[in-house]
Predict the 3D structure of the following.
Amino acid sequence: MKHFSDIGGMIKHLTLLAAAQTLADHRALKKCAVAIENTAKEEFGHYQGEVTPFAGWAELAESTKEDRLAKGFTENDPLLRTGKLRKSVSHLISGADAVIGSESEVMVHQELGTDKIPPRAVLGPAAIRNKQLIMDTIGHSAAEGLLYGSGLTLAKLT
């Protein structure tokens, strides 16, 4: 148990504890965001099975396969033609928030589907596939922040 000789020592300790937790949380968010982004990118070009609540991907329509071939692409690699859509997936960390997504309108249509295109969700399933990593990483982050002051130094946490 930590003992303080004065209020200044306690305030310093609490300030360092808060900073340590912020650093641990940032590292955890970054690790989770990168994992989800990478998983999502790996899904392009391969039919995906159901990941509740997201349906498995429907087979490409014959007209789509023909169009792909006519334009010089492989016939049956869903969501993958030039790789541009896959490259559009990225992550952003801001404070206590991590956002994984794409600014491409095409990605929105693929993720949610339209009246002509069945949904081929990539981002939601990627997050679900990383559930255990997320839980382990965030749990570790909380423990790391709580343990600060038990002999660890700020340098050891970074």
Residues 7-43 form the longest helix (37 residues).
